[in-house]
Amino acid sequence: LSSPVSETADEGVARIDVTLPDEGVHRLSVTDPDRDDLTTTTNPVRCGLDDGRPTYWGDIHGQSGETVGTGTIERYFTYLRENAHLDFGSHAANDFQITDEFWDTIQSQVSEHHDPGEFVTFLCYEWSPNTPVGGDHNVYFKGDEAEIHRSSSWQIADGFEKHHGTH
């Protein structure tokens, strides 16, 4: 941009029309005018580089307030599609925080928000043992139903009485 553009965000989202001057990969810097110390740089934007392959954007490691994030899983998927304009997403809750009821909710939300050709969701959880056992790994499934194999259950009500963990 040749000069700064000012826009007010609505619920954390602002839309700004941008014309890039030439072909190539560009990044835009965004600064909060009330907080000069709050600056970010966008993901790369490819301009005029048509090699015949589409580019898709997504977030495959988000969490909601049911685990260590904020909001609900429903709001998370809605935000990805409607506000962030992403093409795909998954919810990667820590396995030791996922109750049986929340695992059912995750599966139903993945199914509900999956819209082939528009927005693709992947069923996922973060298998989160301590470092000596291998550290965090994301487990993704091809469908929207699967069995969860927790690394432990120390933060859910039934704890080790129900799930001893899978190493």
Explain the layout of strands and helices.
Layout lengths: L23 E3 L2 E4 L2 E7 L3 E3 L10 E5 L10 H11 L4 E4 L8 H14 L6 E8 L9 E5 L17 H4 L5
Helix pairs in contact: 1-2
Largest sheet report: 4 strands, mixed
Quaternary state of this entry equals single chain
The helix/strand order is: EEEEEHEHEEH
Tell me what portion of residues adopts beta-strand conformation: 15-25%
Number of helical runs?
3
Class of secondary structure makeup: alpha/beta
The span between the termini is 52 Å
Low-confidence stretches: none
The percentage helix is 10-25%
C-alpha geometry = elongated
Brief account:
This protein has 167 residues and is of the alpha/beta class. 17% of the residues lie in helices and 23% in strands.
Textual characterization of the structure:
This protein has 167 residues and is α/β, with parallel strands linked by helices. Helix content is 17%, strand content 23%. The protein has 3 helices and 8 strands. The protein has helices spanning 73-83, 100-113, 159-162; strands at 24-26, 29-32, 35-41, 45-47, 58-62, 88-91, 120-127, 137-141. It has a 4-stranded mixed β-sheet. The chain has a two-stranded antiparallel sheet with strand order 1-4. The chain is elongated and about 60 Å long. The model has no long low-confidence stretch (mean pLDDT 85).
Feature tags:
single chain, 167 residues, alpha/beta, four-stranded mixed β-sheet, two-stranded antiparallel ribbon, 3 helices, elongated
